[in-house]
Design a protein that fits this description.
This protein is α+β, with helices and mostly antiparallel strands and about 625 residues long. It is built from 24 helices and 19 strands. It has a six-stranded antiparallel sheet with strand order 2-3-1-9-8-10.
């Protein structure tokens, strides 16, 4: 796991290039505190930088990693889980390796296959390969989107980095707000790719690549979420057996490291299955990590996590989540997030990853299972769609403007949506276009794009054969990639911790994309195929559980001292919000209970981001 950065086609002098690369490298120190490397190519007007968290080949994996003659170099953020298999094939073709690192496999694979090498990589990655002979830069990001990659085209060159901060450290890009991204964020709670919260800065889409050459920039795609036809002859039991084998192999591959690997454990099916396979394969006592919510029985899962850790004979570690810690932690959280993200419990994950990093460098988690196998409660709401056939669209949208209860308002917007694809997205909306205009100062109004950037493209929609598949596609490509995985990377790497996700292994994802919907959701039962695995591998008290999502405790934003912090944050300093509108929102949150927590959560994270990146650079 690393932080990577670089610049090509630059107009900087050799001295300026070296200095810019050094600043970019230092800005990523937290992503790789073990060692750093900078390599400039003055004749090619380019350079690469990397920070390394040493996990595989601790002594020999230094980056940038060269080929045999030093004409191709790679930097890699992530892990390539099939690198040993790739290495054997490449050595048989005459390539010579000097290390055991997965980054070197990328170098030689590019030499052999060019851009087509990307389809052969199984893992999580944001990577860059610089071919000095052709003055060509290849950037790529894994299919699910586990590792981020930012880039910007400027008058002084093309820049990229694992974080936007690396681009700003170059001195060639300034952090200025992207009003279109803010508009979509207020609707959805995250900033969808390829947008970023910063004007002129893009995030590379998952499963996509960019090739930069002196002649220009070329973009492409090597993987896309597409449902496949299920096998007509395969029985339900055979599907369960296949997933059992695939998950076991995925976890085994994700344990490959030269340092100990632990596991996040909530006591739900996903993390418990991942930990169960890990305990079987590791050969050592597994270390597990959980977060506890004292005095919050509706949120706390500690009894189930303890039951599971005892069942595994694991060394179990816990940390209590204290809402009172939010005011002190929020500036650092916002600084590491780099973009507002509030559709997931960011502060909770920040505390959990801090605990894990105190003991280990890497852990496995159950992320991705809910989006592949229909684990969330809102997937059970498919029966609401037939009601849309009998609902007048215009009156439903009109009525939503006057309803105060957020849940009723959301239902009316869903019923009034012009088409099914928009109706799917309306489940996640918090602020309507009219509400955003009231909330923001006039100078920050933007007419859209609202929900549009999160809509699943026609190429994906055409593969969806029912409502569940369509909603899973939206969740996987949107909320998972740009919310959950985005947040997980930023919070874990803020503590120099790598989180590996076996459910997002290429083979497991491919399996899920051809699994019949009846084995995901059936008669209100979620994750049907996983329930069978839970009965095989987990204690009865865990196997019998239903889904309980990770979230904040109720009324987290209205209890002391968080309530005072919220008022000071939103009312006492410069920012994009209309003060009177925010005051009304604070009052609604205090009086309205849990349904009213989402709006204030969304506003708090936007203001915290604004303070760290926009106000700090002189904006009012």
């Amino acid at each position: 796991m690393c932080g990577i950065a670089g610049v090509v086609n630059t107009e900087l002098s050799p001295e300026e290039l070296e200095a810019a690369l050094a600043r970019m490298e230092r800005s990523l120190f937290h992503r790789g505190p073990d060692e750093g490397g900078v390599l400039a190519f003055p004749a090619q007007r380019a350079g690469l930088a990397a920070r390394r968290l040493a996990i595989v080949d601790l002594q020999g994996g230094r980056q940038p990693m060269p080929n045999e003659d030093g004409t191709v170099h790679a930097v890699l953020n992530g892990e390539i889980y099939n690198h040993a298999e790739l290495r054997r094939d490449l050595e048989s073709r005459g390539h010579r390796f000097k290390s055991r690192s997965d980054t070197e496999a990328v170098v030689h694979l590019y030499e052999e296959h060019g851009v087509a090498c990307l389809d052969l990589l199984h893992g999580m990655f944001g990577l860059a390969v610089f071919d000095s002979r052709r003055r060509r830069l290849l950037l790529a990001r894994d299919g699910p989107g586990m590792k981020p990659l930012y880039f910007a085209e400027t008058g002084c060159g093309f820049l990229f980095g694992s974080e936007a901060k690396a681009l700003f450290a170059s001195g060639l890009v300034r952090p200025e707000p992207n009003l279109a991204a803010i508009d979509t964020y207020l609707a959805l709670g995250y900033v969808p790719t390829p947008m970023s919260a910063f004007q002129g800065v893009e995030k590379l889409r998952p499963g996509c690549f960019v090739v930069v050459e002196p002649s220009g920039v070329r973009r492409g795609e090597f993987w896309r979420f597409r449902h496949q036809e299920p096998s007509p002859s395969k029985s339900d039991a055979e599907y369960v057996d296949e997933l059992d084998s695939l998950l076991s192999r995925a976890v085994r591959s994700h344990l490959a490291a030269d340092v100990p690997v632990g596991a996040f454990l909530s006591g739900g099916w996903d993390s418990s299955l991942t930990a169960a396979y890990a305990a079987r394969h590791t050969g050592k006592r597994l270390q597990t990590f959980s977060i506890v919510f004292p005095g919050e029985p509706k949120t706390d899962e500690s009894q189930h996590a303890r039951l599971m850790s005892a069942f595994l004979g694991a060394g179990h570690h816990e940390v209590e989540f204290q809402p009172a810690s939010i005011p002190d932690a929020m500036p650092r959280i916002a600084r590491h997030l780099e973009e507002p993200c509030s559709n997931v419990p960011v502060a909770v994950v920040y505390a959990l990853t801090s605990l894990g990093a105190q003991h280990l460098k890497t852990v496995v988690s159950g992320e991705g299972s809910d989006e592949l196998f229909a684990g969330y409660h809102y997937f059970r709401s498919g029966q609401s769609y037939p009601i849309r056939r009998f609902t007048p669209r215009g009156p439903a949208r009109f009525a939503a403007r006057f309803v105060k209860n957020p849940r009723v308002r959301r239902a009316l917007r869903f019923l009034g949506a012009p088409d099914e694809r928009t109706a799917d997205a309306e489940w996640f909306r918090v602020f309507s276009p009219a509400e955003k205009r009231r909330l923001l100062k006039p100078e920050y109004w933007n007419e859209g794009p609202d929900l549009a950037p999160a809509m699943i493209p026609d190429e994906v929609l055409s593969t969806c054969r029912d409502v569940l598949q369509r909603r899973l596609a939206l969740d996987f490509t949107g909320r998972l990639a740009d919310g959950i995985l985005f947040m997980s990377d930023k919070m874990s790497m803020s503590h120099s911790l790598e989180v590996r996700m076996p459910f997002l292994d290429r083979a497991v994802v491919d399996f899920a994309l051809r699994l019949p919907s009846r084995l995901k959701m059936c008669r209100g039962r979620e994750k049907v195929v996983l329930s069978a695995l839970a009965k095989r591998h987990l204690p009865p008290g865990i196997a019998a559980r239903r889904k309980q999502g990770l979230g904040y405790p109720p009324r987290v934003w209205t209890t002391p001292p968080v309530d005072r912090y919220v008022r000071e944050l939103l009312l006492d300093g410069p920012g994009p919000f209309d003060v009177a509108s925010v005051e009304r929102l604070i009052l609604q949150t205090k009086n309205g209970g849990r349904p009213y927590a989402l709006p204030i959560n969304r506003v708090v994270f936007l203001q915290a981001w604004w303070n760290e990146f926009i106000s700090a650079n002189g904006a009012k």
